[in-house]
């Protein structure tokens, strides 16, 4: 029975059992020979799984908490516990790198001088990042450095480490603020080369100050021509050539040595291993941090970090800025924009990032985009998005299939941005038109269909050839679920169009509306074309799939939006569903469809009545009025419906060409007695359940289900 | 002036299409060179551009080539050159050109007339040199001017157009043979068929096909290619029409379907660039 227990425990998932029903038969108790307490037996099955990584994670956590709590100067030699934890940290670091939270603890221990140098060295050498290094841990390490609690060698090792893993630090704002502190370390002769290298990485134009240049020149005078000092000086000269007046020799062999260190090899090994395991490189995205870009192509990046334009170097005329008294010379750099209140406070001096593609994942910038009228930002975004979509499309470009996951995420991001801005991108629309004819209907399906729903409304419509034809081809040859997804996305497309129309109707004075060449009749035609298209594919689909309820639900959902267009969205258009949709719904086997249909017919009536009233009252000059044909169509349907559900006269009265008219002789052949009264709502197959329920409640004892009792 | 553009000839250029550059000014080329060299230095420090051996000091120059234009509306071409001064070649400080790339626009009115003022249209980019430098320079342009680079492939249809067009051009000196390279699909080992035609024969054939001088229609190109294919078939019993045309070489220029071009005659340089600009624009719009 011991063996049995182990086998069972390997199969149970590692999820703590929260509820256990006492009246459920506990088979495990029975198998183990009658342990009656279900709670205990269940707990035994919660033994940890055989997954090694979880146990490794636990041991890492243990090691970290050990190092965190370590108090006095502990020697390594006699301490087995520390040995064990140290080896744990090292092995995990080499295998897959340390998680971000580990750095704070380990750096604190290593730089605080509590432990011997041998331990500190091993700790520092195992600081291989798995993903990112939190800036706070680096900042606190610098403060340890200032206090000089650890030995000189450890300080040097720390600096070498910092230079090697510089790119993994998630934010660097605080590090930039500590520039002066780093600069002050230059006086230490041993640290000087490393500090120079670090400063080389950190220096920005604003850090170049005359007193720093003087300091460097002094050091150079003291120590002679050192290549690392030269490197820093030449960088300063690059930023501010007017401040660094000395001439630097052009030919220098090496400016700054590239320190390999044990970390570089480990990082590369881990990266290689990750690439082997998962074909998808996990992109790092942390606000404005530099993500690990795909190594495959340098020219397309799906995720771009927002970085401000280097305005000082690119601005056309500095004079212009000085004259303008009301605006500050400086604009808020995009990297500093973190909260909504910051956006509001600085909205007058914000600038868009140097690459517009980075706004996709930045809601604050999207808000700002909504307020700006500057056409060039839209054009920049248009070009970037269009090119990226076309370049990365996995079914249009041969090599791209392996990057499907990334492309899917990208499409998802584009969709979310469209939802945020509540409008579609024209570059996205063009991409759809280009790629839909080549699409297999499978790759990135839900993302593509959702993007379809954001195609903008314009009266210049070539929707038929660009959208409807390729979509219809896929629609007819696909599964039921695909058909329903398409119908849902077309319904959302219609709703987006109607919403857009309502919003722009309110702002009629807006000249932009007219510049888009949208006349009301043009819009009505485009919307009508969509509705007719859906009507057509729905009819065919119902035939192909044999009227399933699932499909009917989506179709009727679409018409729920259609029937209310006049009253809810102020669009003077009323289109009845085709007979191929109406009759299957009317005669469907389930009450949901019938109910939906009745609701839809009710709303049609409300709309028609309101339209008629407006027409008759002549209070406003109407551009449109519904033709009498629309009323006739509606009346035909309603006659059929009433006949079907109430007056049992549908077979006589229904005059619709695709309707239910049947001769009496044919009806007699059905051998239904009293056929003149037997085809109404009571006997409708969809309502059968309700009828039965009614009879059961009214006459609980009667088991003969005599439907004629219901009047 | 053919002398100034002579250095563009007889080099293999990789083609890219570039979307319009935002806030680019050709009065600030020196500043751009400065910034680009700082960027290159920083990138190399990160170990992205791996240089084996002695570290090189890289000098960047950005200049304008006003001759390479189609019409006055076109933006003048911009040339970026990276040269290195290796420490080994000590005193003379000889500069060795290690990479060059240039943006140009020849008769690109289709694109430039629809674009607002802040944008500069230079839709064609040609690069010669190491891929690592192309990626660094390209990344800098993308980051600074918010543009997008994409490799420009040349379809077999366009290649056959080039073959027809360039065959008809008059060349002074004895021209080199016209060569077409075809790649045969679906074989276990890749097979390339090279078909060389005497340039005068090719020109004679084209002259009989072309009806109106200065105008070329799709039918004429098809007829021209079909003649070549049937001639080949008569001798070797291979249908070249079933293979993929991957490279066209004439006395004027040679083009590869991966988007690689080589200019051989300076008098037709602008003509070829016009065609390539058109291809680049169609990839952008």
Automatic annotation (TrEMBL), chain A:
<feature type="compositionally biased region" description="Basic residues">
    <location>
        <begin position="1"/>
        <end position="22"/>
    </location>
</feature>
<feature type="compositionally biased region" description="Polar residues">
    <location>
        <begin position="43"/>
        <end position="52"/>
    </location>
</feature>
<protein>
    <submittedName>
        <fullName>Centromere protein I</fullName>
    </submittedName>
</protein>
<dbReference type="Pfam" id="PF07778">
    <property type="entry name" value="CENP-I"/>
</dbReference>
<comment type="similarity">
    <text>Belongs to the CENP-I/CTF3 family.</text>
</comment>
<dbReference type="GO" id="GO:0000939">
    <property type="term" value="C:inner kinetochore"/>
</dbReference>
<dbReference type="GO" id="GO:0034080">
    <property type="term" value="P:CENP-A containing chromatin assembly"/>
</dbReference>
<keyword id="KW-0539">Nucleus</keyword>
<feature type="region of interest" description="Disordered">
    <location>
        <begin position="1"/>
        <end position="58"/>
    </location>
</feature>
<dbReference type="GO" id="GO:0000070">
    <property type="term" value="P:mitotic sister chromatid segregation"/>
</dbReference>
<dbReference type="InterPro" id="IPR012485">
    <property type="entry name" value="CENP-I"/>
</dbReference>
<dbReference type="GO" id="GO:0005634">
    <property type="term" value="C:nucleus"/>
</dbReference>
<keyword id="KW-0137">Centromere</keyword>
<keyword id="KW-0158">Chromosome</keyword>
UniProtKB/TrEMBL annotation, chain B:
<keyword id="KW-0158">Chromosome</keyword>
<dbReference type="Pfam" id="PF13092">
    <property type="entry name" value="CENP-L"/>
</dbReference>
<keyword id="KW-0137">Centromere</keyword>
<dbReference type="InterPro" id="IPR025204">
    <property type="entry name" value="CENP-L"/>
</dbReference>
<dbReference type="GO" id="GO:0000775">
    <property type="term" value="C:chromosome, centromeric region"/>
</dbReference>
<dbReference type="GO" id="GO:0005634">
    <property type="term" value="C:nucleus"/>
</dbReference>
<keyword id="KW-0539">Nucleus</keyword>
<comment type="similarity">
    <text>Belongs to the CENP-L/IML3 family.</text>
</comment>
<protein>
    <recommendedName>
        <fullName>Centromere protein L</fullName>
    </recommendedName>
</protein>
């Amino acid at each position: 029975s011991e063996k049995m227990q182990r086998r069972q425990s390997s199969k149970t998932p590692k999820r703590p059992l929260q509820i256990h029903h006492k009246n459920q038969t506990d088979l495990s108790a029975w198998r183990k020979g009658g342990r009656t307490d279900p709670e205990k037996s269940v707990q035994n099955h919660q033994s940890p799984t055989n997954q090694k990584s979880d146990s490794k994670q636990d041991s890492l956590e243990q090691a970290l908490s050990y190092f965190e709590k370590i108090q006095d100067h502990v020697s390594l030699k006699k301490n087995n516990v520390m040995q064990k934890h140290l080896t744990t940290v090292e092995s995990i670091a080499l295998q897959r790198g340390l998680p971000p939270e580990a750095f704070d603890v380990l750096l604190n221990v290593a730089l605080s001088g509590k432990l011997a140098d041998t331990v500190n060295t091993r700790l520092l050498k195992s600081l291989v990042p798995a993903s990112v290094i939190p800036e706070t841990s680096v900042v606190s390490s610098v403060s340890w450095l200032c206090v000089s609690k650890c030995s000189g060698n450890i300080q040097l090792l720390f600096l070498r480490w910092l230079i090697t893993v510089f790119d993994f630090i998630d934010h660097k704002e605080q590090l930039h603020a500590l520039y002066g502190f780093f600069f002050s370390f230059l006086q230490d002769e041993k640290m000087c080369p490393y500090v120079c290298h670090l400063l080389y990485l950190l220096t920005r134009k604003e850090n170049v100050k005359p007193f720093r240049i003087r300091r460097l020149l002094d050091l150079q005078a003291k120590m002679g021509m050192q290549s690392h000092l030269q490197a820093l000086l030449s960088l300063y000269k690059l930023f501010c050539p007017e401040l660094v007046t000395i001439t630097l020799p052009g030919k220098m062999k090496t400016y700054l040595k590239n320190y390999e260190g044990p970390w570089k090899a480990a990082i590369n090994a881990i990266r290689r291993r990750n690439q082997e395991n998962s074909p998808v490189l996990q992109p790092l995205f942390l606000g404005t941090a530099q993500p690990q870009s795909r190594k495959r192509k340098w020219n397309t990046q799906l995720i771009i970090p927002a970085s401000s334009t280097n305005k000082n170097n690119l601005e056309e005329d500095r004079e212009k800025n000085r004259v303008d008294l009301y605006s500050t010379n400086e604009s808020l750099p995009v990297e500093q924009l973190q909260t909504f209140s910051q956006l509001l406070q600085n909205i007058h001096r914000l600038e868009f990032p140097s690459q517009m593609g980075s706004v996709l994942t930045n809601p604050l910038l999207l808000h700002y985009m909504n307020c700006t009228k500057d056409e060039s930002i839209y054009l920049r975004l248009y070009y970037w998005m269009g090119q990226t979509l076309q370049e990365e499309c996995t079914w249009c470009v041969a090599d791209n299939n392996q990057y499907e996951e990334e492309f899917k995420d990208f499409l998802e991001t584009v969709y979310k941005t469209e939802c945020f801005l509540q409008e579609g991108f024209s570059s996205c629309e063009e991409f759809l038109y280009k790629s839909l004819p080549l699409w297999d209907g499978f790759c990135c399906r839900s993302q593509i269909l959702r993007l379809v729903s954001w195609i903008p409304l314009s009266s210049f419509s070539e929707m038929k050839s660009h959208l409807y034809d390729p979509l219809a081809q896929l629609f007819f040859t696909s599964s039921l679920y695909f058909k329903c997804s398409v119908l849902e996305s077309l319904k959302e497309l219609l709703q987006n169009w109607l919403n857009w129309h309502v919003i722009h109707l309110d702002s009629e004075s807006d000249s932009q509306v007219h510049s888009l060449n949208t006349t009301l009749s043009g819009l009505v035609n485009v919307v009508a074309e969509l509705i007719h298209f859906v009507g057509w594919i729905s009819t065919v689909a119902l035939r192909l799939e044999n009227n399933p309820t699932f499909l009917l639900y989506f179709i009727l959902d679409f018409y729920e939006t259609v029937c209310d267009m006049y009253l809810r969205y102020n669009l003077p258009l009323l289109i009845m569903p085709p007979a191929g949709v109406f009759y299957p719904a009317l005669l469907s086997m389930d009450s949901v469809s019938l109910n939906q249909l009745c609701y839809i017919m009710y709303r049609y009536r409300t709309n028609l009545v309101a339209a008629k009233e407006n027409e008759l009252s002549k209070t406003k000059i109407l551009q449109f009025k519904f033709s009498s044909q629309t009323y006739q169509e509606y009346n035909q349907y309603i006659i059929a419906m009433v006949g079907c559900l109430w007056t049992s006269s549908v077979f006589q009265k229904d005059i619709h060409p695709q309707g239910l008219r049947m001769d009496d002789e044919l009806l007699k052949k059905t051998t239904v007695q009293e056929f003149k009264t037997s085809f109404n709502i009571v006997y409708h197959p969809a309502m059968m359940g309700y009828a039965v329920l009614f009879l059961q409640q009214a006459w609980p004892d009667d088991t003969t289900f005599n439907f004629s009792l219901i009047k | 002036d053919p002398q100034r553009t002579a250095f563009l000839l007889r080099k293999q250029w990789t083609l890219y299409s570039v979307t319009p550059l935002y806030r680019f000014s050709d009065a600030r080329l020196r500043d751009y060179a400065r910034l680009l060299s700082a960027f290159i230095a920083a990138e190399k420090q990160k170990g992205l551009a791996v240089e084996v051996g002695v570290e090189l000091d890289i000098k960047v120059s950005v200049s304008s080539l006003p001759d390479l234009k189609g019409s006055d509306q076109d933006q003048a071409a911009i040339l970026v050159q990276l040269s290195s001064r290796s420490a080994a070649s000590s005193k003379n400080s000889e500069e060795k050109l290690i990479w060059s790339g240039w943006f140009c626009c020849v008769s690109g009115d289709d694109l430039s007339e629809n674009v607002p003022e802040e944008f500069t249209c230079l839709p064609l980019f040609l690069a010669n040199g190491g891929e690592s430098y192309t990626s660094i320079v390209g990344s800098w342009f993308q980051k600074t001017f918010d543009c997008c680079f994409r490799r420009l492939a040349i379809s077999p249809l366009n290649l056959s157009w080039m073959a027809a067009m360039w065959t008809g051009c008059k060349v002074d000196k004895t021209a080199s043979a016209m060569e077409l390279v075809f790649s045969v699909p679906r074989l276990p080992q890749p097979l390339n068929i090279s078909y060389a035609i005497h340039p005068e024969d090719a020109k004679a054939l084209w002259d009989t096909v072309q009806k109106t001088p200065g105008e070329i229609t799709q039918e004429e190109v098809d007829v021209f290619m079909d003649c070549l294919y049937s001639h080949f078939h008569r001798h070797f019993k291979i249908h070249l029409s079933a293979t993929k045309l991957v490279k066209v070489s004439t006395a004027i220029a040679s083009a590869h379907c991966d988007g690689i071009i080589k200019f051989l005659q300076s008098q037709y340089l602008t003509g070829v660039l016009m065609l390539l600009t058109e291809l680049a624009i169609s990839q952008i719009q």
